[in-house]
Amino acid sequence: MPRGRPAAILILILALAAGLLSMMPPNIARAADGDGIQVLITRMTPVAKAGGTITIEGQVLNSGTKTIDSAEVAVRLRTSEPLFRSGISSAEDAQSGGTLLRDPKPVTLRNLAPGTAQPWTFTFRADPLGLVEAGAYPLAIEARAGGKTIGAARTFLPWIPKNGLKDVKSMRIGMVWPLVDRPHRDGTTLGDEAQTPVFRDDDLAALFAPGGRLYDLVNIGTGMKVDWVVDPELLDSATRMAGGYRVAPPGSLDPDKPKKSRDGKTPSDEDTAKATPNQIENTLAGGGGQVAAGWLDRLKTGIGAQPVIALPYADPDLAAVAHALDAGKADLRPQLSEAQAEAATVMQRTFARPVRNDVAWPAGGALDPSIVDLAIGNGASTVLTSGASLPPTKELNVTPLATAALPGADKGTALVTDPDIDKTLTADTRAPGQSVLTTQQLLAELLTIALQEPTLKPARSLLIAPPRTMDASLAGVLKDVMNASVDWTHGATLAELAAEPAPLPARKLAGYPKDVRAGEPSEQYIAETDNLVRSMQTFASILTRPERVTGPFNPALLRLLSTQWRGDPRGADRYRLGVTRGLRELESLVYIIRRTGVTLSGEEGNIPVTVVNNLQQPVTVRIAAVSHQPNRLKLGDATTVTVPDGRRREVPISAKSAANGKVMVDVQLLTPDGRAVKTPESFFVNTTTIDALTRWIIGGLAFLLAVFSLRAFLRKRREAALAPDTNGEDGEDRDDAPSDPDSFDDTENDRHEPTSGWPPPHPVAPHAGGNGPPDPADPRGHTPSRSTTDRPE
Length: 793
Prior knowledge:
Number of strands: 31
Strand content: 15-25%
Helix content: 25-40%
Mean pLDDT: 84
Shape: elongated
Number of helices: 19
Low-confidence stretches: 1-34, 257-276, 726-793
Radius of gyration: 48 Å
Largest sheet: 6 strands, mixed
CATH superfamily of the domain at 25-161: Immunoglobulins
CATH class of the domain at 25-161: Mainly Beta
CATH architecture of the domain at 25-161: Sandwich
């Protein structure tokens, strides 16, 4: 190939691309859109009807840096034919073509300065538009300057000609109306008899008050034919608030302010770094009791006889539980069953009438085989799922019905949403002008679906499931859509949709969406939740009134599994930390006093172990001691003891020693059935046993000492009996005479000179402290006396 040919081909391609761009309608070539011109539609006639009038209002906002001296705002409408469903969801089809209308006349804007907006309004009759066939037509409001489009708002105009829907069967619309919010309390309560709850924040007070999200949802949903999907935990929290509650002070739950433990050291998180507030002195009074009570009354009145679906208590993440079970990480199915039972209790207390509890709604409506199995195994007869997760087994040219069989399940029905409508519901309808655009797109979708097979029997069905935390703006959009589409839709309950047989073709499970999987709690979070559940069960088994602890903490453990933690791992970890610390604080009130060592004298004895119970109720525990060297130190069996509330009790552990020395001993608190409550306390036991030989030696020495003592005593008495009586010059007896330091004493004859009575009249035994050996010339054995010069001073 010649060198110049590739260059020529490239030039030709660029020229063709430039030609295509020049042929595109000006509303596609939006080069000036980046100049900061926004066209907002704030109000619009939702459906155009033959003989009617269309009104569209809005404004042009200049958010750029340059003043627009002059601009025109005009209506562009494509009247040739209505859009197919693919055209509604396709930006190219929905934004292309059309004619700038001269009736209504364009509105002229002048001197549109930066940061300012100018309003516009169009009012015109529908008949002259030339729309013949019923359906949705693309419509745009364009701002133009210098022959170019500098900004546009694109939407849809549903059109119903005279007698245009006469033969169209009304489409059944099932809609769920969720009342769900994130958890606002853990297991913390005051220590009073009523166990006043301590909320983590007071945000629910604003949500229940006029203007709050939950207040508006009840007001908007009143009178609509919908299935109210309610988290019983929200009703439980409102009831607790109405009965009086406390609130943790701001910042008191921050994990960076640890408190000190009993030994003055900063404990780890596992040992309760900082417990949540649980006293009146360190909590604040809750201010939402009255609005919570009013919200509950308004809810019961607004729902009336409408169907109510109870989610499991705290709306546990069904998919996260299923995936943890499937991976062998944790089995939290008992918690799902507990959530079902708790939900039934709360709903009966609130509504005093039966409600449905057999509907499963996994996060995002996403399914896989493990979720299906868990949902059906947990008692669900209906599963709400998304069309993206359960598509038809073959491509269709019409929108499939909402009812479907659950793949791989012997029973149960799937109610399936529409993927395009699901995507539309994710728009932020609080943004300026977005609520009108969302309303018009939903109306266009519904009308187009109803017209696909107008005579289908049974009539077409559709499920609309807004996000769990739907805001009031989106709720208002859905209400406007249902009111504006009454000519071709009507409300239906989920039970009515599920009663229809699943049509063909069947549906299949698509792969679990990666973006949905990414929002699931981590494996570590699930494992820690499972550990907390086990800790709670173990601790409760030593209590004489376990309901005082399980009452507030079991629901808190269920809230750990809430679907609301998806996408908020930081919030989930903070909540888990709060529940953990609250439980660890209670556990820390029952403990064994630490010892550094114990001395055991003799072969057998008792090792004292002191158990402290600072709870407000008695506990029953087993004290087990284990010797690290049982061949040297054997310990008795575990002892079960009941410790009164606020008291301590010493428990003796029998011990038998076989050798001297130190032996490490572990002492542990156990439940009455033998489960460990805490890690063992370890200390040394110093044994001082005496063997048989040592005992014989000590006994012999003691005997000899006694013999020598007796012999000395007897000799002293004998000598005293042989000595003559010696009286002083006054004739008194010596024993009664005053003491003379120079007088003779048989015990001190080595320290004094002999008196005038020398030599003594009787023999004296030698003294160990004498002055020398006895003189052999002295038959009595006495030595000669010293001279006065030898006497000590």
